[in-house]
Amino acid sequence: MPTTALTYPLLAALSAVLLPFIGFLLSAALGKHARNGAISISAISLSLLAACYAFAQVWNQAPVHIQWHWFTIGEQAFHVGLLLDNMAVLMLVLVCVIALPVHIYSAAYMKGDPGIHRYWTYLSLFCFAMLGLVVADNLLLMYICWELVGFASYLLIGFWFTRDSAVQANKKAFIVNRIGDIGFLIGIGIVYSHLGTLDTGTLISTPETLPAPWLTVAGLAFFLGAMAKSAQFPLHVWLPDAMEGPTSVSSLIHAATMVAAGVFLLARLFPVFNETVLLVIATTGAVTAFVAAYFALTQYDIKKILAFSTISQLGFMMVGIGIGMYPVALFHLVTHAFFKCLLFLCAGAIIHEMQHVKETHALDIDPQDIRNMGGLRKHMPLTFATMLIASLALAGFPFTGGYLSKDALLVHTFEWAALQSGAAKLIPYVLVIVSMLTSFYILRLLANVFFGSLSNPLAKNKTHIHEAPMTMLIPMLFLAACSLFPLFSVNPLNDGHVWLMQGLTTTVSTLPPLPLLHLVIPLLTTGATCMVAILAWHWYVNGKYPLKTNGLLYRLSQHQGYLDVLYNVAIVRPIFRLSHLLLWVDYHVVDGTVNGLAALGRSLAATAAWIDQRLVDGLVRLVGKIAWGLGHIFRRLQTGGVQRYFATLFLVILVILLYHIVVLL
Amino acid sequence: MIPLTHFLVVGACLFAIGLYAVLARRNAILVLVGIELMINAAILNLVAFGRYDKTMYGGQVFALFAIVLAAAAVAVALAIILNVYKFYRSVNPEDIKNLKD
Known about the structure:
The complex is a heterodimer.
Chain A: H1 8-30, H2 38-58, E1 64-73, E2 76-84, H3 86-109, H4 116-135, H5 139-157, H6 164-195, H7 200-205, H8 212-229, H9 238-241, H10 247-255, H11 259-268, H12 275-296, H13 302-322, H14 326-361, H15 381-395, H16 401-419, H17 427-450, H18 456-460, H19 470-483, H20 499-505, H21 517-541, H22 552-558, H23 563-635, H24 642-664
Antiparallel strand pairs in A: 1-2
Chain B: H1 4-24, H2 28-49, H3 58-88
């Protein structure tokens, strides 16, 4: 039951959420005076401490829920509060634990950027929004944080706003996310109209209050929101473009904030989804995982490869939700957060170094293109070591966190598929293929970047490439340690011992276990990974690349399935055409009507003016003219000659007399 | 007895001569003479009609008044002519046109 007493765990969670917000306000207020990021870093560090305390108090204990009255509309009171259960505190800690290394790393990575004070401000806002999202007990509050996450990511993706591509990318991210937000909003509307409350606790405890069709619609609406936020096919297009932001931001977006929000939403609202919706989620996830892995195969931009790998892994998590095993999805989210964050930080270190080399030697190379790298293993050994760990975790190699979560996911998917019929049975096989593709593209990346010899432009100029600075290396080493198995389980090979899943699974009905799978799947995936690794080594390091680069499948992959082109032709251009049409209507019809009315008024006024000047004034002037003319005639009589006057007088009298004589007689 | 018509004809002739002098002469004094002639024509008419008022002699009395007034008027008019002459160095009415528009 919700309380109003602020206990210590609640206080800790609340301060964990609000500290980055205070950091945001302070950074915003200080502006250029706070360039070193001390405020943001200390805010997130304190947040981490508070989050750890809350985690220690709440994990595997009864959930803590606090609620205050927020506002009242009509007779409907809205409440706001914090809900701390295992899921919330896990995410709380995860967000902080990922955000802190990213903050520290950023201090070195973004050093010297003229807009760095904005960077810290946005970063704190981003963390605040995500932390608020995970502890909110209320759909409306969640939605507010959800929007804030989107807005902060918009600001960060477009951080280098003088680049046109960054502006296009953040616009795209924002617009695609709006599509998902509409879904979320529709879901909230449906829930509110049937339940009369937005409390997530009420919703997930009594989802059957909603009529079955509406439950499906609401589930699909919430999933649409998660699809955009967590970059699911076909709304994933914003994520590869979001690479325009600073690499440290990419690592945060891809690991703990932003894309994790969609998965978290689905996990939080899990009881709302019925069979149909879950099947849709699982299918979408499988398609996304496959398509993104396929696109990642041929990319040359190091960050694009990682972006597609994130999309692919998010597809795995969606499958985890779809098969009803949301703890597995969340577990994969956690392990993925660590190794994906690490991958991006390593990529950032490499790009940082390449950029440095490019500037010192005035080379005309793209610092993110893996074709320009090669042989960096000897120059950046620690970066190589950490990136290798992260890559193995991504590929699902034993002794890593990724192995535990991915195998758990695969095994449960097989178990789930055993109960399904029809095409759904294919989903686990798709995932197995995807995990092989994953191993291939990440090893392709490693081979291209770290093995072989230095690429031509670098070797020719006798460049000196050195290791990243310590402020960047320490976060990387920390994350590398977190990517390994001991953080999650004492047994490196069996996911049954993972404390994290044990903590979350209590409320979920487990699938009938197939013990054989726990042996077969790991062997299969590990074996496949090794085979693929040998293949990638053979192709890329030994330079025996067998494929033609102009084949249809290759081009389809490299151009990301021509989805951007398709969207451009099918959506963007018709909208442009429509807006041009509307512009035309506006200019010619609406403005034309107004202008026509104005012209009509003007011509009426001109006619009136003409009548006034010619007729009315003319009449007056005519009277004047007549008087003047008469005067002109009569003035001739006034000659000044006295005798003429007499003569006139006489004549007049004579006329009068004659008149009298003639008329009267 | 001389019939009334003769008086009236003589009066009319006098008036006509006076009128002509007033309208046509180039000398202001002679214009004045013309005026006198016209006044006298009127006086003649008064006297002639006076025969019908044998008790009161209204015609004769009126004639006397008119003669006195004419004399006074002549005196004033001559004074004006004198002043006009001083100003314009002319007594020709044609030359005096300051009243013109």
